Amino acid sequence: MSYEISLSDLTLTHGRRAAVHHCSGRFAPGSLTAIVGPNGAGKSTLLRAIAGLHSGMEGRLQAPRAQIALLPQAAALDRQFPISCLDVVLFGHWARAGAFRALSRGEKQAARDALAAVGLEGFEARLVGSLSVGQFQRVLFARLLVQDAPVILLDEPFNAVDARTAQDLVRLVKRWHGEGRTILAVLHDLELVRAEFPETLLLAREPVAWGPTAEVLTAANRMKARMMAEAWDAEAEACLRDAA
Ligand SMILES: Nc1ncnc2c1ncn2[C@@H]1O[C@H](COP(=O)(O)OP(=O)(O)OP(=O)(O)O)[C@@H](O)[C@H]1O
């Protein structure tokens, strides 16, 4: 099965306002791509749409929805819910197997192994509300390990985590890439992108540039993205075909 993700003249809206506008291109199977751009450029909206979690859409978006695991932005998650680290990781199995099936001993062991793999052995019973930001992000990566999806979408995965955690998690991402998975990550740290991500999509509602990272992250392209973001009228309605 091919795990290509392709966009064809894709416009994504919130209400009647466009968040992503006339976007075309493809993420090749097995590619490791950073999605970068100014605040409000549409990066999270694009990721959620690829995961099948966004409904306001025109144009075409082809993605293997059942094969995708999404790590949402940490800010979008409620950590006050009284749930243990192990339970959060076990959700990774349920995403694949359905919520109403009892989990096998092997699946529970896989969840414990995943916690150990992200450096959280002994944290099984800890409530997620008591973790540091970095520890919680490690738990979410353990859940991704258990999900074992061929396509992984990461929304600002290293935001606000300590340097050591970021290093460990980047190592995991590289391992997944080496295993042939397709990985898209929304990132703000351009040095990290240059060092670790072979492909980049520079987005400012529309793609400014998309391809090999060194060719995309030029000063001219970054300036263009900034100017496009500043010139964007956030109140303008999307030019949808049925909006005329
Ligand atoms: N739930 C929502 N309802 C209405 N508008 C939204 C919603 N989510 C995002 N938007 C708007 O859509 C546009 C794109 O937002 P999005 O979060 O996709 O950008 P982003 O590039 O991920 O930004 P950041 O880097 O700041 O996280 C912004 O103008 C934002 O205000």
TrEMBL record:
Q: Where are the transmembrane segments?
A: none
- SMART domains tied to this protein: AAA
- The protein, known as: ABC transporter
Give the source's domain of life in one word. Answer: Bacteria
Q: A biological process (GO) annotation for this entry?
A: zinc ion transport
Q: Is Zinc one of the keywords?
A: yes
Q: Which PANTHER family match?
A: IRON TRANSPORT SYSTEM ATP-BINDING PROTEIN HI_0361-RELATED (PTHR42734:SF5), METAL TRANSPORT SYSTEM ATP-BINDING PROTEIN TM_0124-RELATED (PTHR42734)
User: What is the annotated signal peptide range for this record?
Assistant: none
Any single GO molecular-function term of the entry would be: ATP hydrolysis activity
Domain named ABC transporter is located at 5-230
* One Pfam family named in its UniProt record: ABC_tran
The cross-references to SUPFAM superfamilies, in alphabetical order and at most eight, read:
P-loop containing nucleoside triphosphate hydrolases
Q: Mind listing the UniProt keywords for this protein, alphabetically?
A: ATP-binding, Ion transport, Nucleotide-binding, Transport, Zinc, Zinc transport
Q: What is stated as this protein's family in its record?
A: Belongs to the ABC transporter superfamily.
